[in-house]
Amino acid sequence: MASIITNSSAMTALQSLNATNKNLDVTQGRISTGYRISTASDNAAYWSIATTMRSDNGALSTVQDSLGLGASKVDTAYTGMNKAIDVVNQIKQKLVASYGSTDADKAKYQTEIKALQDQLKSYADAATFSGTNMLSVDSTTGSGVASDVKVVSAFNRTASGTASIATIDIKVQDIKLYEGYSTATAAQEGILDTTRNAAGARTTASAATLGTYNAANTFSVSDMKLTDGTLFASDQQIQQMMGVVDGALKDLNNDDRRHQARRRQELDRPAEDLHAELDGLHRPRRRPARRCRHEQGIDPPPGASGAAAARHPGPLDRQQQLAVDPVALPLGSRQHPKPLNFLNKGRRRTGAALLRSEFNPSPQALSPH
Fold first, then answer.
1. In this structure, are 173 and 68 located in the same domain?
2. Could you list the residue range(s) of the whole structural domain that residue 61 is in?
3. 177 and 241: one domain?
């Protein structure tokens, strides 16, 4: 009796078919996961390295998101600061216009200045992003010193495998406009609510009486007045106020320049470097044959892409078809053996389909000889 059990040719072909199917399973596994080494059984050492790299890759992606979030916080703060510069310039213009004017006109200018001061506070309070406000702060817990805003800028791993995180510290104390701590000193207060002398320097508050000039008088941009409804500022006091405004503008402009440099050096450049590092991890590389590297656990399999490989499995598919026919031939008619079907007019069929079509043993094939 001709059977697959006693037919050595069929057994050899079956072994070849099993080997081909195993190779197909490996290929399909690479296509589905996108990795050459997806499990420890593929290569334990490289799988361990690749797993660590994939973990670090996720951490680097988080760092990239953190840098973007930090940049948005800084940009929100300095957008508010630029708005504040425009408004402070308008206050300066009102002071210049009020110099030498009548008391009635000073009262009108005071109404406009008060509106501009309220606008300044509104800009500072609204400069909030993701719960962080760097312009209007309350440093009661820090006794008047605002805490730094930390932005994660890097994830590092040493040669010994120790992981660490680097941060960029944004000095809120240097850029805040308003301070909510009630007993803060002039040096601890914000740029707009601190008291300044006629030269624009921060100094301890010295109450001024409108209409009575005193060289030691101090004012702040946030609450300076031309009139309190009864008394009116003298022209000399208006000059003092203009010096106070100039000092605040100088601090604002210096902070704006520092922001531009910090934005480029501390946020934009690390983000660009990190993007290049991530791009290097993901970009497929051409490697010499027979060369194993731990990045094989990161990169996709060589050759065609996953979708193309799924549509055109290539040589393994033809090997499978070639292995199926010798298994099926001994079970069919001896007088009319069927030709190999691996081309089949351009159509491909799986091994299971070929077996179903070929496995039609006739009574003659199963009868004893």
1. yes
2. 57-85+126-282
3. yes
Q: DSSP 3-state assignment of 302?
A: coil
pTM beyond 0.85, yes or no: no
Residue 333 to residues 1, 157, 295, 326, 360, Cα–Cα distance (Å) = 13, 67, 53, 13, 9
CA distance 25 to 32: 10
Q: Which residue has the tokens 């740029």?
A: 191
Q: Does 95 reside within a domain?
A: no
On average, the pLDDT of the chain sits at 75
Pairing label, strands 132-133, 128-129: antiparallel
Residues composing the chain: 369
Domain identity same for 215 and 353: no
> Per-residue pLDDT tens for 318-327?
666 666 655 5
Q: How far apart, in whole angstroms, are the C-alpha atoms of residue 270 and residue 280?
A: 15
Angle of helix 8-33 versus helix 315-328 axis, rounded to 10: 150
Do 65 and 203 lie in one domain? The reply is: yes
